[in-house]
Amino acid sequence: MEFETNLAPYAARSTASRGRRFAEPAPASRTEFQRDRDRIIHSTAFRRLEYKTQVFVNHEGDLFRTRLTHSIEVAQIARSIARNLRLNEDLVEAISLAHDLGHTPFGHAGQEALNDCMKDYGGFEHNLQSLRVVDELEEHYGAFDGLNLMFETREGILKHCSVANARKLGDVGQRFLDRKQPTLEAQLANLADEIAYNNHDIDDGLRSGLLTMAQLDEVDFYARHRTEVARNYPGISGRRAIHETIRRMINALIVDLITASRARIDAAKLESFDDVREAPPLITFSDEMNREAAQLKRFLRQNLYQHYQVNRMTSKARRIIRELFEAFMLEPRLLPPDYQVAASTEGSVHRQARKVADYIAGMTDRYAMREHRRLFTVEEI
């Protein structure tokens, strides 16, 4: 299609894709990857991201980022970089918008709690759950379960996977067994995710008051850009200074990623899309930027993600997830009918546990809290 005529020879093209699990007529006015993006945006799981935690639970403030706003920011960053590298913008956007579809309520605390609950039933991992959402759980089409996305979109959603799980996933898990790379678009979406959450978590941390600008001056990358802002705009302060600093940090990361990746791509002498799979990872920051990004991550982990006020909420979140799981496993009739497994069927306990995990993972933060009140508070019905 004309949409893909200016792509680099090593970029993914929908016309050369491995296709969909279930054959469908080709779209008339868009590429297959554009169709994937559109299906993701119209999915139920995508809408639910509006009320799922990034760092701060939705009710803690209207201006904090959610999984939805985070996914949109990832897609914007990824598309900008893809255009500079002549990669497929539509594929990278689809992967970016779908990468968190399987996330639990309450962010990483919810995932850790649900994984602990599922330890005897195959575990829980949000990348695998995102793939499960688009392959099985969405119910929009008469001919198949899920969204029936293109192979390359599904592969990009699955960022991490154990060998044991890869063996169960067929073609989409094969690269983990063969130790091969995904598309450059998938590699790019992964790093765009990192750029977005590191920098925007700074913004939310400052807005919440859990981080201070004085603390952040301990981080070389932040301090350098904040000093530059102060020099260029004497007297600037408040939200304007924060936004100007973070904007420059994001730009520096994007420029570094484009420059370093282009150099690695040129050195690899790629001649075709297939060469990408045989090469080492090619979308990467420079060594110096990797060091600075690692310092920023350590700072956020120690000062924001492990802040006592965040820990208070995550402690509540783990308890809510655990108690919901235990209640539903003890009495599956508390679940909606679609999530109940007949006790007489083979493997019913494991299948019931996976259904419970699907139900809980699909909840928004506020729905999980409401369900918990309904089950454990006498005043709620």
What does this structure look like?
This protein folds into 2 domains: about 1-310, Hypothetical protein af1432; about 325-375. α3 packs antiparallel against α4 (about 90-100) and α16 (about 310-330) crosses α18 (about 365-375). The chain is globular, with a radius of gyration of 22 Å. It is mainly α. The protein has helices at about 30-40, 45-50, 65-85, 90-100, 105-115, 125-135, 150-155, 165-170, 175-180, 185-210, 215, 220-230, 240-270, 275-280, 285-305, 310-330, 350-360, 365-375. The mean pLDDT is about 90. The relative contact order is 0.13. The protein contains 18 helices and no strands. The termini are far apart.
How is the topology of this model organized?
Elements: H1 32-41, H2 44-48, H3 67-85, H4 89-98, H5 107-117, H6 126-137, H7 151-157, H8 163-168, H9 174-178, H10 184-208, H11 213-216, H12 220-232, H13 238-268, H14 273-278, H15 287-305, H16 308-330, H17 348-361, H18 365-376
Helix pairs in contact: 1-4, 3-4, 3-10, 3-13, 4-7, 4-10, 5-16, 7-10, 10-13, 10-15, 12-13, 16-17, 16-18
